[in-house]
Amino acid sequence: MQYMNPATTALTTVLMLTVIAIVGCGPPQASPENRHLISSLRTALSAENSTWLTENEQIVEQRREHGKMTQEEYETFREIIDRAKAGAWDEAEQQAIRFQEAQRTSP
Predict the structure, then answer these.
(1) Residue 8 is inside which H or E element, if any?
(2) d(Cα 85, Cα 82) in Å, to the nearest integer?
(3) I need a labelling partner for 73 at 20 to 30 A (CA). Which of 8, 17, 29, 94 fits?
């Protein structure tokens, strides 16, 4: 049986974890048609405005019902909205910021 050099094993592990972190972690990509909702939601969160939050929630639900939002997008929006509705406005805003920053521009 042949064993790998400990340095090679460590390097391989680091590379695998890096790939997993880049590819498999973080918020999903929102479709270009839904990206404006992230900004709108952030505005509601930063203002801690329940009316605006409810309006965003209704839009998210409508887009989901009409098949214009993936399940992964929906779950991310829903988690942020639910967090704010529970009173954790700052945490919800930080999550929305991470969601927005994770978006890549479309070609």
Answers:
(1) helix 6-24
(2) 5
(3) 17
- Kindly list the domain boundaries of the chain, sorted by start residue: 1-107
With b for 16 or more beta-carbon neighbours within 10 A and e for fewer, the 18-36 pattern comes to: eeeeeeeeebebbeeebbe
pLDDT band at 13 (very low <50, low <70, confident <90, very high): low
pTM of the prediction? 0.74
DSSP letters spanning 50-65: HHHHHHHHHHHHHHHH
Q: How confident is the model over 37-72, as pLDDT tens digits?
A: 999 999 999 999 999 999 999 999 999 999 999 999
How many whole angstroms separate alpha carbon 80 and alpha carbon 43? 13
The two structure tokens encoding residue 79: 């988690």
